[in-house]
Amino acid sequence: xxxxxxxxxxxxxxxxxxxxxxxxxxxxxxxxxxxxxxxxxxxxxxxxxxxxxxxxxxxxxxxxxxxxxxxxxxxxxxxxxxxxxxxxxxxxxxxxxxxxxxxxxxxxxxxxxxxxxxxxxxxxxxxxxxxxxxxxxxxxxxxxxx
Length: 146
Description:
By secondary structure, this protein is of the alpha/beta class. The chain has a single domain, classed as Ribonuclease H-like superfamily/Ribonuclease H (Nucleotidyltransferase, domain 5). Helices cover about 35% and strands about 35% of the residues. The protein contains four helices and five strands; from the N terminus they run E-E-E-H-E-H-H-E-H. The protein has a five-stranded mixed beta sheet with strand order 3-2-1-4-5. Strand 2 and strand 3 form a beta hairpin. Helix 1 runs parallel beside helix 3. The longest helix has 18 residues.
């Protein structure tokens, strides 16, 4: 079981013609060095989600796919840093915003449940500019295009 001091997940979702789709999601996993810099890309993924999937649903599914990867590969860490360009998703996960939309409650609950399965000491959420989330964004859009 690989153990890391700090891991970073970048996640994203895309829905063309939001909320009708087509939609896709993507994620990238990095190891973080002692200075807080991403230095070792460990894995990435993307998934086509089909139609009638909103952008927020796709965002949650991108994060959930990354968390499922950590669980499936039995990867553990001390600190898990989750970064994305969806302020609403991150603030909902932090408990700052309530989840009021019926169409995303299931996806929110899936992420919360997946977080319980990941072996980590703490989680930190950070909203980042879209320009810093280019790899996960590219994966999400590639999933739609392919």
